[in-house]
UniProtKB/TrEMBL annotation:
<dbReference type="InterPro" id="IPR003442">
    <property type="entry name" value="T6A_TsaE"/>
</dbReference>
<keyword id="KW-0547">Nucleotide-binding</keyword>
<keyword id="KW-0819">tRNA processing</keyword>
<dbReference type="Pfam" id="PF02367">
    <property type="entry name" value="TsaE"/>
</dbReference>
<dbReference type="GO" id="GO:0002949">
    <property type="term" value="P:tRNA threonylcarbamoyladenosine modification"/>
</dbReference>
<dbReference type="GO" id="GO:0005737">
    <property type="term" value="C:cytoplasm"/>
</dbReference>
<feature type="compositionally biased region" description="Pro residues">
    <location>
        <begin position="521"/>
        <end position="538"/>
    </location>
</feature>
<keyword id="KW-0460">Magnesium</keyword>
<keyword id="KW-0479">Metal-binding</keyword>
<dbReference type="InterPro" id="IPR011009">
    <property type="entry name" value="Kinase-like_dom_sf"/>
</dbReference>
<dbReference type="Pfam" id="PF01636">
    <property type="entry name" value="APH"/>
</dbReference>
<feature type="domain" description="Aminoglycoside phosphotransferase">
    <location>
        <begin position="190"/>
        <end position="443"/>
    </location>
</feature>
<protein>
    <recommendedName>
        <fullName>tRNA threonylcarbamoyladenosine biosynthesis protein TsaE</fullName>
    </recommendedName>
</protein>
<dbReference type="GO" id="GO:0005524">
    <property type="term" value="F:ATP binding"/>
</dbReference>
<keyword id="KW-0963">Cytoplasm</keyword>
<feature type="region of interest" description="Disordered">
    <location>
        <begin position="521"/>
        <end position="557"/>
    </location>
</feature>
<dbReference type="InterPro" id="IPR027417">
    <property type="entry name" value="P-loop_NTPase"/>
</dbReference>
Amino acid sequence: MVDAPRSTAAVPMPQVTRWDVVLPDEMAAGRLAMDLAAMLQSGDLVALTGDLGAGKSTLARAIIRELAQDPDLDVPSPTFTLLQSYELPRHNVVHADLYRLGDSSELEELGWYDLTDSAVTLVEWPERAGEVLQQPNRLEVGVTIPPEAPETRRHVRLTGHGRLAGALLRMRTIRALIDSAGFGPAHRRHLQGDASSRTYERLVGTQRNAVLMNAPRRPDGPPVRDGRPYSAIAHLAEDVKPFVALARGLKARGLSAPLIYAANLDAGLLIMEDLGDEGVLAEAGAGAPPAPVMERYEVAIDVLAALHRLDLPDRLAVSPEIDYQLPRYDIAALLIEVELLIDWYLPHREAPPLSPEGRAAFRQLWADALAPSLAQKPVWVLRDYHSPNLMWLPGREGLARIGLLDFQDAVMGPAAYDVASLTQDARVDVPEEMELALLGRYIRASRQANPAFDMRAFAASYAVMGAQRATKILGIFARLNYRDGKPGYLRHIPRIWTYLQRCLAFTDLAPLRTWFEAHVPPPDRPLPARPAAPPPMAPDDATSPDTNDAPNAPPAS
């Protein structure tokens, strides 16, 4: 076997791609509309050409309904209004029919540029606008009726330019995988994704559903330390091979990771088991946020206790020809993660910047605190073991009732990390008494399995790993606000701060607690949603763990 290689190069993209498609009937036309809707992003332009009656309007309407995820959406013809706009959950959409356009200068009078800015724009009769619509990212869709063909048959020539050249190639690859897996007739439904470049769809079939993970290979970012990019130092997955390896490893041990139905490893595409929509939280009612369900959290902690008592290998099979080596959660990875606090959270709180000597002192304090945990026997650290990535499967027995999602960034490391990830959930309040009850349950199970289990060492590791995780997440959520324009994550910061204080109260962490008290402002006063200036020393790092927001989809974390 060979090890799965780490991808480091940018994926080359063509400038122009063409694809000729024959649609024998309305069902095939509907599948094409589904595929196009899944491919399109804000800012894309689709130019539909063809004779009267060829089906341009029918295809445009089908695409809009797919983008709306509403098959009954009223989509009136823009023949007389020229433009019709829609505010849909994922994109704003503009549908234009320029047949009656006298001159391209009329577009400005119609408010074209304001309406189509950052929208998906579908244009019939685009030739009426001349060169105005020759934008870099566009898809040309030519619909014709083949001579002497059945009445329902259509020929469609798709020509992608710019971003849509590569997107069209990927669309074709996705359709081939869906068909080969036996889900060709399935309806594609977008699922809320996470903060990474991965996207997810539910394939709704007549006999069963599946989930499509679309995770294109991403190149490493710029070097940030010792010539290495952030993603390499933090051991973040570059492709889907780690997910496949861990999914198979977890299932082999009786746990409910998704079954992989079909895969295109080179393209970063997986079709896998759908673990449903039921998570480990319950609606509290009366407008209150969701709350942890004790029974489900107990099974989740039992999963960790059972997994951690096993002798877990650091090498897993991806396929008969390819192995994957789990990286160690080493001191370099743990330190670059906590430094996100310095690079993003401190500027967010308008704290004075640290000097190089101050940063070095911060790193040394953490290195000293983390050393005992790194000396312990390593286990699989799934790294995002919290409510968004845990599903409840009441039809299964025992530990299999917990469905596991989002483990592609797994590493070999301290057992306490995932325990802290669960009991100090970043997105939901875990009451302190519930946290302590779950910890007690884990410790009892561990001692029963191994009478030599060192409870004091585990408690110390739990405190430091919980503090490390909370420190990292403070930086990540501030970064998601500033760099990625996602201020919604800021609402979780007070919760993370509370968890951090619980962990820093542990006696062994007194030096770190003193440093935080001196340098890190608590989140107790309002600030603008986005800082006025970029934070210092902010690398363009890849998406870190703990940024997932996908309760219904595998990562759907």
